[in-house]
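Re: your question from the hallway

Yes, I did run it. Sequences:
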Amino acid sequence: MATRYMDAVLVEKRMSSRVRKNTGFKGLFFASTLFGLIVLAVLLVRIFTQGIEYINIDFLMNHLSTDASRAGIMGAILGTAWLMVVVIPVTMIIGVGTAIYLELYAKKGKLQSFIATNISNLAGVPSIVYGLLGLTLFVRTLEFGNVILAGGLTLALLVLPIVIVAAQEALRAVPGQLSEASYGMGATKWQTVRRIILPAALPGILTGAILALSRAIGETAPLTVLGIPALLIPFPSGVFDTFTALPMQVYYWTIDSSLVAEYANLAAATIIVLLILLFLLNSIAILIRNKFQQRY
Amino acid sequence: MSTVMEKQINLKLVRNPNERYEPEVPKEVVYDTKGLNLWYGETHALKNINMDIKEKEVTAIIGPSGCGKSTYLKTLNRMVELVPIVKTSGQITYKGKNILDKSFRVEDLRTQVGMVFQKANPFPKSIYENIAYGPKIHGIKNKKVLDEIVENSLRGAFIWDELKDRLGDNAYGLSGGQQQRLCIARCLAVEPNVILMDEPTSALDPKSTLRIEELVQELKKDYAIVIVTHNMQQAARISDKTAFFLNGEIIEYDKTDHIFNNPTDQRTGDYISGRFG
Amino acid sequence: MAANNKNRMSVSKMIEQQKQKRKFFNQLERFIPTLLLIIASISVLTTVGIIYTLFAESVAFFRNVPILDFLTGTVLKPLSQNPEFGLLPLLNGTIISTVIAMLVAGPIGMMSAIYLSEYAPDHVRRVLKPLLEILAGVPTIVYGFFAFTFVTPLLRMIFPSIEATNILSPGIIMGVMIIPMIASLSEDAMSSVPNSMREGALALGSTKLETTFKVVIPAALSGIIASFVLGISRAIGETMIVAIASGSSKNFSFDITGSMQTMTAYIVEVAGGEAAAGTTIYYSLYAVALTLFVFTLMMNLLAKYISRKFREEY
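Structure:
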């Protein structure tokens, strides 16, 4: 009789402990997944309870002030809005242009893969380093000073890789048969790109651009390097004005909260405004994605 | 008066396909292919192709998968160049000019030569915009003219009555057969001289297939039509001439009747009767 | 048919006429590839700009401070009468904050990835994954505020001696911020392990846990390691959380309940103080930034190398 190496009773005994172990770990894994979400929930609840009562018309509309009871963030809101005015066209033109070149015009070869590698490496450069580039190039060498244009261009370069990659993916998703049909009618390459491929890729491009924009709006580190004044009273009214922005205001109020405790609440209130802005932008992105999901 | 008469004659012709109308003037050659060779990288995909295609005829190209029939079709409007590794030698003259010559503007060629693809590929735009696309890219912007072109093209593809009330709808809402006829109408809008069809009915149900076949019979009065098909019966039903491709070569090219009833080469007969391929 | 024919003539003619007019546009179109190439080269110029700026100004710095003193110095006193520019305190702060962050993000991100890829039912994953992604979308300034005003006071309950600015609290929060990155990239790697491999193990009577650890994770290892390396790179480059919550102590110490400065926070402090151009302290910004840039670039290249070199062939 052949030896049986598997002892059925023993295996069964062990099995129940193995199954218990599996169940236990499943709980642990689930709890880990929840951990991040719980921290997020605590963060949101904490900030909202701390800041919500400071949000009123005066806070939104007033100029900055060292007096916590009179301080308002209109200047920071306008500063952030002006930054967007610079970031949007610059990233759209350069980002979409680069994506079109890489996906539709460049020959597969060394140049194309060099540019693509370069972009993916740029995406990993810390934002503070972009700040130094902005400081050296825009503020000092081109002598813009610490104005909106310098800040906007710096942020635009920072989020450019996000827009390029999103636009590349959107262009790649347009089925080749559409452009074939266009070429088949005698359309030139540019006509095909402009009238068929770009419109079909537009929802994907916009979604990516909006996500990039929300990244730019929340960025603080590069702006701290450019030298943004901590207490700026006049509102900016053009790209050559000095400015502050919502995240910068949060930064200053947070580090000064050890001096004036109430500043922490103002920072929380400013964060609420910033988060609502980001929430709106992301909702728009999701709406666009759902509404224009193509059925090729 | 003459319009009505012509129409009647035409209708009569469709009803009796056996009673083929032979014109007294010989038909003009649209495409003349001489010694065409084509390589995809190292693969020799077309070998010494010689073939002429005449106006007002349906020329069918048949053969097993990978025999080069689609490649040849796409060479006729140089769509084959969208694959960057393609190399060609020999010549294809279209109306007396060699289209493989680099100085020949490919956009001009494709304006005069329409193409209908295997899978209907309308643009993700309205029905109207699909048809108007061609005229628009060629610079026609007058709204009235465009309206007229859209109507005529849809009529030409016998789909006007179905679609006239929903021109603003997205073309993706149409059935597969309607989409394919829309694509044919779109190609008529720039009024080509030749229509190339790459297995236009392979994705369609029998009823839609029949409608497209009827349409081809109508269109051949004005256009030269080259159709690649997998379907032997289809080739026999609608074409005047048939070319049989095998491994990148033309085995036989002759009148359709001759090819189907009395092929010269044994391989042609084998293929048609389903003994291989 | 005659009517149709008449129109046919006219449209072809119109196209022919328009072709003459369009000649100008067709000429223009020839320049489009060049124009697009110029646009695409802006991203290359950005890289060149970054590298040139960092190197050029660092060279000026190393004229005043020998490079060896910079790299091995343990004393950083940029504002003193006899300034000293030792990198090690900053390097130490950077490494310690990164280690703390990875101690949080590594296990939790990994376990989240296991749950999402192996255990979660489809409808649960579809809810949890986007929620987790929100963590990555919160601006870092918000995390900085949270670490400074909430987490540090909370930690004081455990470590009563903890300072108002310390490296522990921002380290932990940085870890939370990196969780979605590791979870998402590791999950992608694990999800792409073909089901046939799982089925093979499950059919032998393995539990899901055993299958995960003995089959799925080994098969997805390169992707998982790459996600950790990218997480480290992210932690090294993170600025606002540490700048706010860890203060500006330049001591070379290992006390995680005390303030420590990272390379990034140093740049914020010195640049924000409007150091006059041309001074050694101004140039030190660039030397520190160059170090930071080299570190993160190496990490990113390493991650790419790992995921490419060890790409599993299924």
